[in-house]
Design goal:
22% strand, 5 helices, 147 residues, three-stranded mixed β-sheet, three-stranded antiparallel β-sheet
């Protein structure tokens, strides 16, 4: 870690605190060269393995975007949408992996979404599970009815 004051590379950690969300650590550091203090925030880097095999950084706004599209025209509050995304992100991050398949992220969204709105769930599932014909929808509706 480089000192922002003198650009030296040697520093030591004086204090560490975990953030409220539990996904980052704030560290107070002391530069060994100029003896000035500075703070750093360290976060776990989570990468998403896309269907085509490419890697991309995890982005919760993409999950929110998908959930918003699926719930368009439905009576779902912003608070409920945020809660769905929070639950999905918590489930994904709790796995403790550095890479996760986009399929697993979609799966993490389905449970909380189904609890809030079954139509939005069906719309999201149709994209996530790549429905190609009417029978795919019928099979998913039957699963919903059996729950």
């Amino acid at each position: 870690m480089r000192c922002p004051f003198c650009n030296a590379t040697e520093s030591r950690v004086v204090d560490s605190r975990i953030s409220e969300d539990g996904y980052s650590i704030r560290r107070r550091r002391l530069c060994e060269n100029c003896e000035r203090r500075f703070s750093t925030n360290e976060t776990i880097q989570l990468c998403v393995v896309k269907r085509n095999g490419s890697l991309e950084s995890f982005n919760r706004s993409k999950i929110l975007e998908g959930v918003v599209k699926a719930s368009q025209g439905r009576n779902i509050s912003d608070k409920d949408l945020k809660k769905i995304v929070d639950e999905a992100e918590e489930k994904v991050r709790s796995l403790g992996l550095s890479q996760i398949d986009s399929y697993d992220i979609g799966h993490a969204v389905l449970g909380p979404l189904r609890k809030v709105d079954v139509i939005a769930y069906l719309r999201y599932a149709s994209v996530y599970k790549a429905f190609e014909e009417l029978d795919d929808y019928i099979a998913e509706i039957k699963k919903l009815q059996n729950h």
